[in-house]
Design a protein that fits this description.
Number of domains: 2
CATH class of the largest domain: Alpha Beta
Order of helices and strands: EEEHHHEHEHEHEHEEEHHEEHEEEH
CATH topology of the largest domain: Aspartate Aminotransferase, domain 2
Radius of gyration: 20 Å
Strand content: 15-25%
CATH architecture of the largest domain: 3-Layer(aba) Sandwich
Largest sheet: 7 strands, mixed
Number of strands: 15
Helix content: 25-40%
Strand order of the largest sheet: 4-10-9-8-7-5-6
Number of helices: 11
Bound molecules: pyridoxal-5'-phosphate
């Protein structure tokens, strides 16, 4: 059987990793500033993570959601504390898209309404509702097209008000920072207005923190910079350092009913053990603080590079607007300097390293990047 050919691949196969580096079979080392697409949060093969996951799989890897699972309770308690959302409740699933599907469903059940307002250039995943709320017609199949999703320009509160005034919307769905679009931050004032306006119209505010959350920006969630408290928050990617896991954080005013949401794999023992290990490492190693410090340093240094047209982002979620092709530049960084980075659109290079990235590694990247831009 062949693989269904949907990905453009680099001709490099990392077979093991350590910290912020990955290695090919012959031992060639690559600095990983992409984190496997913002997924590696505590570095590759972190000893505490490896131990926790190995011990759990040897004990009990999986049982269904029909029995008690104290690992879920422990994870929920730790996540509540780490994020500052102790009064919210937690629904566990398996991916970012699934988290958004459940968030939308919840808002729709809650209000009895069907429409979702998303934003231009948004990316929320590839499943039915999530892809409908994604502003990229190329990945929306005819089956997924729906009048239940409308888009407004980012940072335009009047456009949002005009839509919500129709009374048809159950939710406004917004990324903490638009990632796939190329790292675009909603203004803090816009998020504050959004919080007020959604309350005024009785619409749920859903913050998609799948890429921008989990400590990456130097606060636990990116929206916390704006001091707002959304009704629903979705999370995935870095939550279990590569073990598939998604989460929906739900404000206290939502009423849970048996059977309203569900999943076979969500919140399984292995996922919870991985998620708990990640939060323990966050705490022991002050990783959210590290993300803030190294992120600020990288952004400051990148802003000094005259060849860059713009540097956007917060913490360790950084977009650099370059002259010319981002994919060509990234390929050179990979082949000539052995550094993995991410892309977004034709001219943006994205950095999404693990929260463990060090000043030394940041400097290694900056030196290589400057040298390459000066060639
Ligand atoms: C903001 C955002 N939402 C949702 C998703 C979808 O997550 P997943 O690929 O885990 O379904 C992504 C993935 O890149 C994302 O960046």
């Amino acid at each position: 059987m062949k693989l269904f050919d949907v990905y453009s691949l680099y001709d490099i196969e990392p077979v093991y990793g350590k910290g912020n580096y990955v290695y090919t079979e012959d031992g060639t080392e690559y600095l990983d500033l992409y984190g496997g697409h913002a997924v590696i949060s505590v570095g590759h093969a972190h000893p505490h993570y490896v131990k926790a996951v190995s011990e759990q799989v040897a004990k009990l890897g999986f049982y269904s959601n029909s029995v008690e699972n104290s690992l879920q309770e422990k994870f929920a308690e730790m996540l509540g504390k780490a994020s500052g959302y102790e009064d919210y409740s937690l629904f566990l699933c398996n991916s970012g898209a699934e988290a958004n599907e459940n968030a939308i469903k919840l808002a729709s059940f809650h209000s009895g309404k069907a429409k979702v307002l998303a934003f231009e250039k948004a990316f929320h995943g590839r499943t039915s509702g999530a892809v409908a709320a994604t502003d990229n017609p190329k990945i929306v199949a005819p089956f997924n097209r729906t009048e239940n999703v409308e888009f407004a320009p980012l940072n335009d509160i009047e456009a949002v008000k005009a839509k919500l005034a129709t009374g048809e919307f159950c939710a406004v769905l917004i990324e903490g920072i638009q990632g796939v679009a190329g790292i675009y931050c909603p203004d803090d004032t816009f998020l504050q207005q959004l919080s007020e306006v959604t309350k005024e119209y009785g619409v749920s505010l859903i913050l998609d923190e799948i890429q921008s959350g989990y400590g990456r920006t130097g606060d636990f969630f990116a929206h916390q910079h704006a001091g707002i408290r959304p009704d629903i928050i979705t999370s995935a990617k870095g939550i279990a350092n590569g073990f598939p896991m998604g989460a929906v954080l739900v404000a206290p005013h939502f009423e849970a009913k048996k059977g309203m949401l569900g999943t076979t794999f969500g919140g399984n023992h292995l996922a919870c053990a991985a998620g708990i290990a990640v939060l323990e490492i966050f705490e022991h190693e002050n990783l959210v603080e590290n993300a803030r410090e190294i992120g600020a340093y990288l952004i400051e240094e990148l802003q000094k590079i005259p060849q860059l047209k713009e540097v956007r982002g917060r913490g360790l979620m950084i977009g650099m607007e370059i002259e010319g092709s981002a994919s060509e530049l990234r390929l050179k960084l990979l082949k000539e300097y052995h550094i993995f980075t991410g892309g977004a659109g034709a001219t943006t290079v994205r950095l999404l390293p693990a929260l463990t990235v060090t000043r030394k590694e940041a400097d290694k990247f900056l030196a290589a990047f400057k040298e390459l831009l000066n060639k």
